[in-house]
């Protein structure tokens, strides 16, 4: 694989429109090896598009569960897949890719492992012909794994990294990118090296930070935990992830993760030193600079979950009774207020929750006035 530009190239609408007349999206049989969260989710999404999905997994129970839930059918020896998606744990990804390339020489093989360089190095060292292999990675998932947690929509609007080189046949590239597009994702081209450095920062280290913070709760007094609000839940949500999988992911991407952890440790040390002597010259500035740099970083995050200034928040009190959220969304629909983002925080010991609704700034007044007229109590808005 050869180096591309360090920055990922996002495939724009013009690119897609031009290629749509030259290459179709996924057709024929798609073989998915690995019926866990990602494999089954891909299966559900493709099945919904009437694509023949053949599932395989080393675990008969997991495989049967995925089939029972409608992610595809059992793979058969006579299958002649056009595309093979390898969705297995990182420690066996290279082995399965090698096997699938040998058993299905006419198929394009991709994998969805969250680490791209280590499997590629292993395959190259073994001398495997990688002409019809394209590594890829959808930046999507859930903190819970397995076929039972799979959802067809987890890829919608998410980046899907594609790692190809100059020897990749155009038709093979179109097929893998077509898979991403069919599932509602946005293909981006990156080198394996750039991908692994990127996910170390935005995925792998956040997992460790969430786990380390949540680990402090183990010995915390119950009274302290009863004070936990949405902020701590947001920052520790992914701490519920499976340790077995993350040991493999972090081990396969250790060097880039260590680079980020070392820099983060330096930042933590700076803040800790400042707080050890909060009255010392420069201490308050060190703390303020830390918070402000965090502000700047969050504003760079794309989409609704970054502090995108296009959206304001309206916080509505919602009774903890069945049907209330449905009524709230129904009222917002009648008011022609589009919900850009949503989260619900339950108040400990209270019979109500706080629904934080993100809307475009021009819709705030219409939402507040309309909801109050319908009997809703507004707790706050970002303009308060």
UniProtKB/TrEMBL annotation:
Name this polypeptide is given: Prephenate dehydrogenase
InterPro entries: 6-PGluconate_DH-like_C_sf, NAD(P)-bd_dom_sf, PDH_C, PDH_N, Preph/Arog_dehydrog, Prephen_DH
Domain Prephenate/arogenate dehydrogenase stretches: 28-305
Species in which this protein is naturally found: Microbacterium pumilum
Chain residue ranges for the region called Disordered: 1-21
Organism lineage string: Bacteria, Bacillati, Actinomycetota, Actinomycetes, Micrococcales
Keyword annotations from UniProtKB, A to Z: Oxidoreductase
Database matches in Pfam families: PDH_C, PDH_N
Similarity section: Belongs to the prephenate/arogenate dehydrogenase family.
Ranges that cross the membrane: none
Family matches, as CDD domains: ACT (cd02116)
